[in-house]
Amino acid sequence: MWLRYASRNYFHSPAVNYLRSAIYLLLFSVWCYSLWTRIVQVQVRHYMLAISALMVLWILLRSIKFSIDNTDAERLLWYFYYFPMLFIPMLSVFVSQSLGKGEDFRLPRWTKLLYLPTLLLLLLVLTNDLHQQVFSFPSGILSDREYRYEVGFFFVLGWETLCAGFAFLSMVKNCRIPHSRRIRWLPLVPFALSLAYAYMYAKNVYWVWVLAGDMTVSQCLIFASILECCIQSGLIHSNLGYDELFEATSLPVQITDQAFCSKYVSAAMQGTLPQSKLRHIQQDTVYLDDDTLLKRHKLRRGWVFWKEDISALSQVQKKLELTRDELHDTGDVLAAENAQHARWLKLTEQNRLYDMMEAQIDRQIAMLWDLLAELQKTEDQNRARRLLGQVIIIGTYIKRRSNLIFVGAQRGAISVQELRLCLNESSENICVYGADCKAIVKGEDQLTLEQATQIYDLFEAVVETELESLRAMLISIDVGAQVEVSFCVSAAEPLCGLRAHFQGLEWEQDEDGLQYVTRKLERSRR
C-alpha cells in the first residue's frame, strides 16, 4: 500500500510499479506454497492451490496489462481477467462444501456440473469481439477505456455473485459450533471488512482509493483472508496447532525435520530422542528395550517417531516360551496341540453319536431290561427259552441300529449292502427264535442315514408288535428310483396301528390272515 501511495504522489517511475507487482506475485506465491505444506485434506488442498494459482495469474495479467501500450493486447488481457474472476468463486463453492469434513471427504458428483456454466460464460467473454454481448464500444474503438456493459456481463456478474454468495452462506453455516450457540467469528471478519471496502470504494473515498484502489489485488487479498481465517479457525484441516496437541496428548510422539532435528515432542515421550540415534535407524520399527518399540513414518518434510508399549505382549511371549520349554521333551508343541485338539474333536463327536444312539434306541434298551428281569424270575424252561430268543432279537437290533449311526457319521451314507447285513442278521435270529423269516434286498446303491434307519426301524416295529405270535415273515426291499419296502407277515397281532407312526404306510390283510405292509421312500435328498 505504501508503494502504491508513493508511486501516485512521489515516485512516478515504472520501476516502482514493477516492484509493487513483484511483491504482490511473491506474496501470493508464498501463500500458495504455504497451502501446499499446511492443508491436510487432499481434495481441499487441490482446490485451494488452484485458487491461489488463479490469484497469481490474475495479478500477473494485471501487471502485464498496465506495462504495455497496445490496445488490442490490453483488451485481450482484460478479457482474460474473467478466467480467475469466474473460476475463483466456483472453486470457493467446492472449498465451502468441504469445511469441517474429514480428510477422506469427497465432493458429490453434482458439483462437477458447475464447470459447465463457468466455461460457457468464460467463452462468452473471450469471444466478445465477435458479438459484443458482454461489453460494447459506442465509439467503435475496441478498448477498455470506453465501453458499456451489455446483457452478457450481467450473466457473468450474476454467476460470480451466486457462487460467492453460496460459498459465503455455506461458510456461515459451518461457522456455528455444533451442539452449541457459539459461532466462529474469525472467518466472518474479512468478509465484513470486504463489505466496508466495497462501500467506500463505490463512494470514492479518497484514502481508500489511494491505498487500496487496485481492485484486482484487493479482491485477491479478501478471498485469501477469508480462506486463511477458515484455516486458522479449524474449518479447513491443516497441520497447525501441534504445540497444543502435543501438550494435551498422552501418546509418546516426536516429530523431526528431514535432518532428524526435533521439532515437536510430547510430554509422554519422556525426553527428546537424540538426533544421532534417529539418524542411524535403518528400519521403520526397532526395539528400544524389551518392553518398548520405536516406530517411524515418513512425512512430506520430515519424520514422525512414536513409542509403543509391548510389555503385555512381552509377558505373553515369556509365558509361551516357558510353556514351549516345558513341552519340548514331549515333542513339537504344535503337533501336541493339534493332536489334543483332534482327540477333543473325536471325543466330542463320539459323545454326540452316543447321545444320538441312546435317544433313538432308548425304548429298546428299556424293553431289553424288562425281558432280562423276567428271564431271571421265570422257572419255566420253555418261557425262558422264548424270552432268551426275544432278548437276542432286541439286542441284535440295538447293535445293528447303533452301527448304522456310526457308519453314517463316518461315511455320510449307508450302502445297500450294509442294510442287507442288518436285515439278514436279524432274520437269522428270528429263525433261531422259532419263526420263519427271510429278507430280500435288491440294489447296490447308496442310501442316506435317514432312509436306512427308517427301513430298519419299520422292520423292528413289525417284529416287536408280533414278537409273541410271529410265525413267518418275508421282507422285500427294492432300491431304485424309489425305495419300496414290503412285508408279508403271518402273526396274530394286527399291524394297522403302525400307520400312525410311519407316514405313507399301507396295510392290508387277506382272507387267510396274512398281513401286507408296504411303504415307499423318496430318494431325492442324499
UniProtKB/TrEMBL annotation:
The chain crosses the membrane at residues 18-36, 48-68, 80-100, 112-131, 151-171, 183-200. Keywords: Membrane, Transmembrane, Transmembrane helix. Residues 25-196 form the Histidine kinase N-terminal 7TM region domain. It comes from the Bacteria. The keyword Kinase does not apply. Signal peptide: none annotated. This is Histidine kinase N-terminal 7TM region domain-containing protein. It comes from Hominenteromicrobium mulieris.
